[in-house]
Design brief:
eight-stranded antiparallel β-sheet, alpha+beta, 7 helices, about 15% helix, disordered N terminus
Amino acid sequence: MPSTKSLIKLATALASVTGASARPASGNGTHYGPGTNNGIEAVAYSLSETYDSTNFFDQFTFFTGTDPTNGDVDYVAQDVASSGGLAEYQNSQVYLGVDYTTNNPSGGRESVRLSSNTAFTQGLFIADIAHMPGSICGVWPAFWTFGPNWPASGEIDIIEGVNAGTTDQVTLHTSSGCSVSIDGSSSEATLANSDCNYQNANTGCGVTTTDTTNYGNGFNSNGGGVYAMQWASDGIYVWFYAHGNVPSDMLSDSPDTTTWGTPMVSLRSNTCDFGSHFANHNIIFDTTFCGDWAGDVWGSDATCSPLADTCNDYVNGNPSAFQEAYWLINSVKVFQ
């Protein structure tokens, strides 16, 4: 989720919003396996961290700076978020929401962006999520990881989309010298660009998907699901399973990626040294508004543009539209 999103990424986002794709959709979140391991590196993992309602806010830091993506957002500190009901524990789950009551807020609509206190290099990251921000005009949510001195240490966008989008986009951003293929991905994956430094890494190498249960309203109406991202020495792999179809070991303390079948997205390369392009990543959850992606495509978005002249106008003047713009997290586990 870097400072600028260029036209290629915007174009793929529009394709995602309209449902256009070169590959067929399944719509049920069950088509990834179990099956063969598709040549994915077998790693024996040990549980390193568990983030849930017992410790989440102790292990994550609230970002309060200016949004690097130029969003119409005011990222607030923990005390403000807590008193305003934007960040709290609810029924053994972690709630991360936005302000949906203030009309025409000064300085952007209040929201939260949290970063894990611990940084990781390689590993298996498994997020069990009950609800994510819905397919709402003006919203730009993301679950991602990135390292210092962007883009030198890389970025991995696991869940990301904008506006009324209905499917997830997975993207890598790196320094120069890293190009990837999606060989070994599910049939729903479409690679927009292979160069992960494309447009000075602002666009990166994005992969669109077509399963409407993996993002936004479809994800929520289906009861959420589990995302797993394996960051290995030979590539980066993302699986998604809707709740009710999750492999039995995926949420255990002994997950085995080789039994999960074909990843939703597999990003590999014979030329990219993943060890030198990705290192020391913090885990991020955030929800911003408008900005360099959701705002930039507003005028060409057939669903959203009729609602207001600009994205900012809509976000500022329609607080109740964002009541469903929240994350509800059961847990995030990290294995190394």
